[in-house]
Amino acid sequence: MKTNPIHRRWLLGAAAGLALGLAAIPAKAQDTIKVGILHSLSGTMAISETTLKDVMLMLIEEQNKKGGLLGKKLEAVVVDPASNWPLFAEKARELISKDKVSAVFGCWTSVSRKSVLPVFKELNSILFYPVQYEGEESERNVFYTGAAPNQQAIPAVDYLMKEEKVQRWVLAGTDYVYPRTTNKILEAYLKSKGVAQADIMINYTPFGHSDWQTIVADIKKFGSAGKKTAVVSTINGDANVPFYKELGNQGVKAKDIPVVAFSVGEEELAGIDTKPLLGHLAAWNYFESIKDAKNSEFIAKWKAFTKNPKRVTNDPMEAHVIGFAMWVAAVEKVKSTDPDKVIDALPGIKAPNLTGGVSEMLPNHHITKPVFIGEVRADGQFDVVWKTSGLVPGDAWSKELPESKDLVGDWVGKKCGNWNTKTNKCGS
Amino acid sequence: MSMVRNRAFALVIACGLFLIAGLASSQNASAQNYESALAGFAADSYGDTETAIGAVAASGNPLAAQVIDALQNGNLLFNTDSKKVYFKDSSGALIDAATGKPAAGISAAGLQAVRVNNRLRRSIDAALGGLTLLSPDPVKRMDAAKAVYKSREVAAMKALDAAIAKETDQRIKRALVEARAAVVLNNPEAANPEKLDAVAIIRERGDQDARSLLAGAANDGSDEVKRAAASGVAAIDARLELWSAAQNAWYGLSLGSVLLLAAIGLAITFGVMGVINMAHGEMVMLGAYTTFAVQEIIRAHNPALFDYSLVIAVPLAFIAAGSVGILIERTVIRFLYGRPLETLLATWGLSLIIQQAVRTYFGPTNKDVGAPSWMSGAFEVGGLTVTYNRLWIICFTLAVFVALLAVLRMTRLGLEMRAVTQNRTMAASMGIKTARIDALTFGLGSGVAGIAGVALSQIDNVSPNLGQGYIIDSFMVVVFGGVGNLWGTLVGAFTLGIANKFLEPYAGAVLGKIFILILIILFIQKRPRGLFALKGRAVES
User: Fold this and answer.
1) Nearest chain B Cα to A165, which residue?
2) In this predicted complex, what is the ipTM?
């Protein structure tokens, strides 16, 4: 059956008008702008994600004190996806269709992000994702405020190579998508720098692995080949505490075999006695110990908000601070919370980060961030021993992997998340 | 004649004066060197600190060792405005680093500690090693020898030779000779025969550090040295290969003891009573949180007791988890005897409730449970590293096992427990209050799980999820060992632990675990009742 194109356009217009009219009725009735918070408050991931829910509540409360947004109060809608990946998708749908939130701040693991992606595409909403991740993704509805591999993993390896003269590498990770992809990128990068296959050891462990005796012994053995050895750890979540305890007990000192971690921050160290870990490293875009007026103000506010002087701040929290500020600025710029308008307005928006710089949202929906390498101190904080001279723009697609080196994300010019610069086509 | 003598005398005096003046001026220069070197610490830059370490160590100032030692321990402080440097001595008193005199009227609170990174830590070790080789304290000399062995600083050669000549303690002398060999191997100007001797000495040492050193030497130097070093590496490898079997067995024992500890409570509630208790892991978690609470109280009120915190926590964890167990039995499980599916669901629900309650009360983040000093660190037996915490856990597990066995065999409660589980009606007609025994048995199983939590807090996270990680393993052990038999649980746990650790080096942690599960499935097909099947009427019912 053939439809008259003019006819079709008319129909479409009418439908759009109707939809707008329908949408206008509840819009009049409501006098708040709703913001969805999609972080696990129970289950395995609660340990990390609960903090992010709290920081979002703090940011929203603060914005309301300043008079809200577009003359309306902000209202937080908190749901608990309970560390259950399919439940993330269900809860995202509930937030967008039932609660009509204007944007969602949430997810931690890559699995949960992948599980909500189709929902955000289908219902056309906005997700701010605050955690460092494996890259290889650029979606129209998602804004990645955490680090891409070139903003964390690659600089960390560079640091070890230059400053510590490391020649042998152990890539240890938990067995899931983020460590696997990151290690693939790192392996390609190390080989491009002339590291031989025999000098790279890759090791994966299950989630929540608690018996590290064999692996730590293997690391010591691998490190006794007469070349400076380092461990690059993408070990995630609960497995870190027993790993570091075993390192400490078996006497693996940072000055002999340093461990640089991408998922261990202030929050994770709060559960360990850090004295045996002195000098082990972490790479992040933010450390609580960085001296900056904005940072000390944030830390003070956070301690007051949680009524706990011992609460620490960490990198994903800063990512939410930046993401929220960018969203507020974009909404104010277009004077609307309409997802399409906000998505188009976000690239180019700038917001100060907490370490003295100004981050910018890029056309590939990633942001510019400084990279810091910190050494563990005895008090569970980090001493920054190295940082990039400026802000590093996030690469959605890794330049180290053959399958993605020609791809770029560009939602401004090309309106495409995986534009191939070789074939000049959208899609790989 | 007299005139000549006079003149000579005058000359001597003049010479002497000149010498003294020279000495004084050189002493002055060294003092100035030392003081200007100290200023490097106040610059708050890693590069300046590194230069300062070298300069202070070379200044020969008697304070140098103390200053660098303070730097290592984070006790070297400086004033950000006046750039003056101070250090805290062992008693905690503040000393002016330039003069060595107590710094009166200055409080440490206004000072900033000199920061160090890994590279500086290595420089500190090297400098301190060179400075303390002749220390009167044998412990310090030993540390110094080890530090020089690690740093291989060619500059330390002279001090090493002097120290070796003076040393009387054989162990320290050996360490010094090894350190000297390491330095020789690192010195490109050392002669060939000397290097070959050094290779022989290091080869005899035979551990991983020695292997690392020889592997480095096998890469450069003359062909002869290269060959000797390579053969040394091969010899050490062969030796370490032998030890690796012992190491796997030890790791297996220690993993087995953790499995046994986690499963032993379940062997009572599931094995003896037949209750599928999914909340078992949460009892372990409650035990771990009890340890945390005990440590918090000790930290706040009596830090001197910290080393005993675990000993105090054991009975408290037993009582805490045991009473929760009795409460669960009285309120939920007793209505569900003989209905395994409902029990499974109800206890699973309970486990979620307990987890979330703990999460709400203590917060979702990990809690820091410290290790008492007698549980930290490791010692070496040949090529085997034995960590104290694992060693203690093995001993503790066996003690718990023996105690539990004794309770079941030798006490009236144990007798009644066995009677009730073997034949409830008969036991009831003999006048045993079966309901009371059920509650106590469940309480005992839960209490033992709580004790396990105290030990597990030393090697794992103390978080609300702690128990979840152990529940599957615990069931695996109990089913594999044979339901209802404590000995079966013991053998099952150690078998699984050792099998896992021998598989892991070849298959990796992920595949190793999968293999173990497949083996258990096959085994259960062959022997559905596990390793040690109970025989008799109780089983048939």
Assistant:
1) B119
2) 0.82
